[in-house]
Amino acid sequence: MNRLRALLLCLGLALFGTQAADAQTQAQAQSNPPTNLAQQVPGIPLEVQNNIRRFIQKSPTVAGFRTEVDFLEPSMVLPACPGGTIEVLSAPNMRLWGRSVVQARCLKAAWLFNIPVMIRVYGDYVVSTRYLQAGSRLSASDMRITNGDLTGVPDDVLRSPREADDRVLTRPIQMGMPIGLNDLRETAVIKVGDPVTILLKGRDFQVTGTGTAQTQGMMNEMVRVRLNDGQVLQGKVIRPGVVEMTLDR
Question: What pLDDT, on the 0 to 100 scale, is given for residue 40?
Fold first, then answer.
């Protein structure tokens, strides 16, 4: 008899513990509602939500990228569109990237609503593998490609390490930080004392010659070149080792 009572007591405690755990779980769920409310937009028909996502995916600004679309006003309610269809459109020249606005329109009922959305765009970009000092010329070991949300990094972020070829940093970069085109400058493709080819162009002629660089320059910069006869002229760097000079006559 005592053993039976002990067994019933154990079962009762186990049942009480299960009910208490369930109650605690329910309480936590009520006190911590789902955070992804942007995906729950009961006031916008599911078909319209899917049309908005398809419309954004076809935008040239996100072509070739994977996108995620969150609706920023989950309480928004679209009116009915009796006898017609709800069109999706955007303002002219609207860049559908990051925080944006698309429009839903019903011609039959003559209404148009702006729908704020967050468009996350995922793709490859370049980050540093270590701390990089200003003035550093980047090598392959200084960079790696990562995949992430491009709307969270600067627009000029490098998409490939090759974009950093023949460039040096204008500012220090912390490890793991994205590297942008504006963080770089070209290295001089012509240095003082370098032999250069001179392309001399006139209205009706073009001749080539050789000389020695008196100043250094990057692409499209002006440099001074001393000719073999001692004359010094100025021309524009058009490619490594080549300077173009144009005569008006």
Answer: 62
CATH topology of domain 122-186: Type Iii Antifreeze Protein Isoform Hplc 12 (3.90.1210)
- Residue 128 has φ and ψ, to the nearest 5°, of -80, 150
pTM above 0.70, yes or no: no
Residues of the chain with CATH 3.90.1210.10: 122-186
Is pLDDT at 141 greater than 50 in this prediction?
A: yes
Residue 106: which residues within 8 A CB-CB, separation 6 or more?
A: 79, 81, 84, 85, 86, 87, 112
CATH number of 195-246: 2.30.30.760
E-strand ranges in the chain read 66-71, 86-89, 98-106, 111-128, 143-149, 167-169, 184-186, 195-201, 206-213, 222-227, 232-239, 242-246
Tell me the three state secondary structure of residue 228: coil
CB neighbours of 244 closer than 8 A, spacing ≥ 6?
199, 201, 235, 236, 238
User: Which band of pLDDT confidence, cut at 50, 70 and 90, is reported for residue 12?
Assistant: very low
